[in-house]
Design goal:
The chain is built from 7 helices and 2 strands. The model has no long low-confidence stretch (mean pLDDT 76). It has 2 domains: 66 residues, no CATH class; 53 residues. The protein is mostly helical. β1, α2 and β2 form a beta-alpha-beta unit. The chain is 36% helix and 8% strand. It has a two-stranded parallel sheet with strand order 1-2.
């Protein structure tokens, strides 16, 4: 998840959790169980929960809380306003949050496909398909990275 496991030593975790979440191995021993699940997350953890909720109807999922995410890779992130976003930022995201050769090079794809087409449409999350669960969408004004995408998701 986060680079360098955010300083958490490997022997302190069970490997069932992700960086931002409690360790289920610890809580299950205490008798806790999750009967109705909800998804929550910020930034890149907001995007998959919206994607999941838009494509699948999981009965135990009762709500999602995508904070500061986006749903349209082209319009909200790569070519916001019709012009390419900062290429160095793409490199930082690709190199900082993914291993080598395991992430699409969206900067190169933008050069190859500079206009919105079927390739970029396939990357869009169909938020309009979420009709069975509530969403608690959060945006902030201190950074313009996710603001537009958050408002468009809410819309």
């Amino acid at each position: 998840m986060a680079p360098y496991r955010a300083g958490i030593a490997l022997d302190c975790i069970s490997s069932y959790e992700k960086f931002e979440a409690p360790d289920p191995a610890e809580w299950a021993e205490r008798g806790y169980a999750v009967l109705n699940t909800h998804a929550r997350g910020n930034s890149w953890l907001a995007i998959p929960q919206i994607n999941f909720a838009s494509r699948m109807h999981y009965p135990a999922l009762k709500a999602i809380a995508p904070w500061e995410g986006y749903t349209d890779l082209f319009r909200h992130y790569v070519a916001r306003g019709g012009r390419p976003h900062v290429p160095g930022f793409h490199r930082m995201i690709s190199n900082g949050f993914a291993g080598p050769e395991v992430v699409e090079n969206v900067g190169a794809m933008l050069e190859k496909r500079p206009l919105y087409d079927d390739y970029w449409e396939a990357k869009r999350i169909p938020v309009e398909n979420i009709d069975n669960i509530p969403m608690y969408v959060v945006a902030l004004y201190s950074s313009m990275l996710h603001t537009y995408g958050s408002f468009q998701t809410f819309r």
